[in-house]
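Worked example 2:
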Amino acid sequence: MRLWSISPRYLDRQGLLAVWREALLAKHVLEGKTVGYKNHPQLERFKAQISPLDYINAYLLGIYEEAQARGYRFTKEKVGPLKKNLKDIKVSRGQVEYEFQHLLKKLAERDINRYNELKDKKEIVLHPIFTEVEGEIESWERKQ
């Protein structure tokens, strides 16, 4: 399971479809609708929020909006109710850089055009529910 901190705009088709499925699985876990993945490290930052479901719904919305912009037909009803004025989840600069490099490795193998578009990018935009802070790779990250 990979719930990217970086903007879904960077993901290729395969990555966007995967993060949609994985975020829906994360939502099921947070709703208690599945027995697997309960302790998956990618869920820690959502579980740490006062209302994890509100945050996973906001996360799903960001993915849904990117899919819409590309002309994909994701089902918005799967997003769930949205709350306004959620505080952003903090994510460290080290985590952002790690994820971006991880994505570039994937893109080098499966979408060389997208890789070439992104490989020299210096400013990395985050998914809308995250705000960058100084720091190293997050403790919940399982390096690959």
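The radius of gyration is 15 Å. The chain has one domain: 8-133.
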